[in-house]
UniProtKB/TrEMBL annotation:
CDD domains cross-referenced by the UniProt entry: ABC_NikE_OppD_transporters
Gene Ontology cellular component terms for the protein in this record: plasma membrane
A GO term, aspect molecular function: ATP hydrolysis activity
SMART domains for this protein: AAA (SM00382)
InterPro entries from the UniProt entry: AAA+_ATPase (IPR003593), ABC_Ni/Peptide_Import (IPR050388), ABC_transporter-like_ATP-bd (IPR003439), ABC_transporter-like_CS (IPR017871), Oligopep_ABC_C (IPR013563), P-loop_NTPase (IPR027417)
Sequence ranges assigned to domain ABC transporter in this UniProt record: 5-255
Source organism (scientific name): Desulfosarcina alkanivorans
Domain of life: Bacteria
One GO biological process term: peptide transport
Protein name from the UniProt record: ABC transporter ATP-binding protein
Keywords: ATP-binding, Cell inner membrane, Cell membrane, Membrane, Nucleotide-binding, Translocase, Transport
Family (UniProt): Belongs to the ABC transporter superfamily.
Amino acid sequence: MSHLLEVNNLEVKFALRFGDLTAINGISFALDRGERMGLVGESGAGKSVTGFAIINLISKPGFISGGQVMFNGRDLTTLSNEAMREIRGNQISMIFQDPMMTLNPVLTIGTQMVETLLAHRGITRAEAEAIALEKLKKVQIPSPEKRLAQYPHEFSGGMRQRIVIAIALLTDPEIIIADEPTTALDVTIQAEIMDLLQQLCESEHTGLILITHDLGVVSQVTEKIAVMYAGKIVETGPTDRVVSNPRHPYTQGLIKALPGSLQPGARLNQIPGMMPTLTDIPPGCAFNPRCSLCDTICREQEPPLKAVGDDACKVACHMVTK
């Protein structure tokens, strides 16, 4: 059975005066219909660039320099802007960190939703209004009829993010890419939004790629996970198995840094050092300057992403053998 989305050896570079910098270095993963996947890592790991590359929205000086993004049998990296517009926002929707960046402050919610539908579907305005109302109900916005006539500033942050999700659902997409969708919200609202996204993906059979630095959120919502570091996937597998038995030292560090992983009152663990910038990614394993297991081979050879234990989990680490 072929996958709904298949990313094969994707590479993204940024063309700068002194040469090209590699932001995404040959990553591969697949997503099936209705499947929920998490892309996890610190800032600078390449998660958001991956999301933008899937929908071919890398802005200059960035460009896709290699690999494929196969969606329903078509390679999205080869399509024209016009062909991509039919897919982007229609079959693949994206939800961003800050809802105020997505919503137009001078248009009512109803206008924005109706215009989105009219741009993608050959339907009447009355039909578009009916769909907009239905989607607002789906994301549990109270008194949706009244809300359609309101402006973005009249909503709380959590409500705005619900509206952004409703807009993403307007065209019944096959995949939603959610880029840190709860970062700007407080913890209780975060949990509500993530529950909502999970319910919607299950009921609509929509695939989800959740981009986040928060392993706690990923473990609640996704079925599989890919941990990214310096533009590469360093560990991947079913979410419950990666979270309960992380093998890569970086994944172990991320999990130990979660507040709930320690005794109350204990100091939080943190991974020493910083994610390397694109200009100074070290030779060998990019994580080696921060890693307590680092050996000579780690400084000299880049570890391949290989199966460990069984085929379900893969890890890119010279020190992990089983």
